[in-house]
Design goal:
With 211 residues, the protein is mainly alpha-helical. Helix content is 64%, strand content 0%. The two termini are 31 Å apart.
Length: 211
Amino acid sequence: MMKKTDLFLIPLLTLFMGCSSKDANHINIFSLPGAVVGSVIENATYERRREGVERYAQANYEILKSEIKAGEGKYLDELLTLAKVEKSKFASVKERLRKDYTTIFHNVELTAQPIMQSFSKLYMPKSAQDKTMNGFTYTQAWNIVSKRVDRDFEILRGDVKRGGHDVLSKIADDLHIDDKVKRESFTHSLDGRYNSLFVDPLVVGVMIDGS
C-alpha cells in the first residue's frame, strides 16, 4: 500500500525523470503547490547546491543508503549540510528519509515507468479494436515489468550504473520481444539514466528540506 509520503515524493521523482540535471530548471519543480523550497531562491544558487548534493550522493550512495535505513550517520549529516538543511531539522528530516526508504531506494514504479514507455513506443496498438502490445494488454505488460523490476532491483541498478543490460534482456524475454532491432532499442532504454532513476530520488528527498 502506498504511504502518504509516497503521494508527495513520487510526483516529484517522476518530474525529475524527464529532466537532465544539467539543463533542467529544477526550481520550477519546487514552485508547484505544496512545495517546500521558497520561490525567492535564485536558480543559479539552487543549481550549484543541488549539483553538490548530487555529486556527494552519487559518490557515497551505498553508505548513505545504509545510514538512512539506520536513521543516523556522519555521511548523512554531511549530505544534509550540503543541502542547507537547518541543524534543528536534522532529526525530523532523518526520520522522514528513514520512513521513505523504499520510495528513495527501491522505487519500482519510478523505475518501471520508462521501461513501459519504451515498450509502448515499440508496440503501439494496431487498432482501436486490438489494444494489445505484442500480445499483451497494458496491465499485463506492466505487471510483468514491475514484478521483474521489484525482484531484480539491485541487479538492475548495477546494470544501469555500468551500462549492462542483463535484467532488461530478461524483461525482453518476458515480453516476447524477438525482433532484433526492437530488442536492441528496448534493452538500451535505460542507458544514461542512472542519476535520474536512482540518485535523484535521494537528492529530491533531501533538497525539499533545504533552506
